Amino acid sequence: MKVAWQQRRAPLVAAAVAGTGAPALDLATGLLRRTDDGLTPLRAVVASNADGTPEALVVLGPPEQLPWCDGATYLGRSPQAPGLLLPTVKAPTVPPGLLVAALQIQRLTALLPVQERVLVIAVDQALALDRAALQRFVQEHGGPEG
């Protein structure tokens, strides 16, 4: 199914922020600058390619606690399909309920547009942020250590 994206009339309330490539690295690096208390309300999941290489980082949490990151995509819950996290400022041209049915989505899932494709990322198993895991993610993406 081909999914195109169009500007939303009104943005969704952010429930997550996601990045691939440089924005994913910037997101993780920015989170490492936070205190432990600043990480506590957040959960994260890493989506990997078929070869196991990390491709995307999705951070979930209260809107006011989500980090700002240039180039990242902010995601919110679709009113028509609460199990979907969709871009806050872009809407799919396919009705969200039809996407849920077509993808057989049965748990909280993020749809992240990346160039000419859409990453489908299960986020219901997101884990509490852990400094060591963030550092590993940064190192795997070629960022500075520590």
Give an overview of the whole structure.
The chain is α+β, with helices and mostly antiparallel strands and about 150 residues long. The protein has one domain. It has 4 helices and 10 strands, in the order ββααβββββαβββα. The strands form 2 sheets. The chain has an 8-stranded mixed sheet with strand order 9-8-6-5-2-4-3-10. A two-stranded antiparallel ribbon has the order 1-7. The radius of gyration is 15 Å and the shape is globular. It starts with a strand and ends in a 6-residue tail after the last helix.
What attributes does this structure have?
146 residues; alpha+beta; eight-stranded mixed β-sheet; 4 helices; globular
Short description:
With 146 residues, the protein is an alpha+beta fold. The protein has helices at 21-32, 36-39, 96-103, 131-140; strands at 5-7, 14-20, 43-48, 54-60, 73-78, 81-87, 90-92, 109-114, 117-122, 127-128.
Q: How many domains make up the coordinates?
A: 1
> In terms of structural class, how would the helical and strand content be classed?
alpha+beta
Helix content: 10-25%
Number of helices: 4
Strand count, sense and barrel status of the largest sheet are: 8 strands, mixed
Molecular shape: globular
The radius of gyration computed from the alpha-carbon positions, rounded to a whole number of angstroms, is: 15 Å
Number of strands: 10
- In whole angstroms, the N-to-C terminal distance is 42 Å
Give me the side-by-side strand order of the main sheet: 9-8-6-5-2-4-3-10
Q: SSE string, helix = H, strand = E?
A: EEHHEEEEEHEEEH
Unreliable parts: none
The percentage of residues in β strands lies in 35-45%
The overall average pLDDT, rounded, is 91
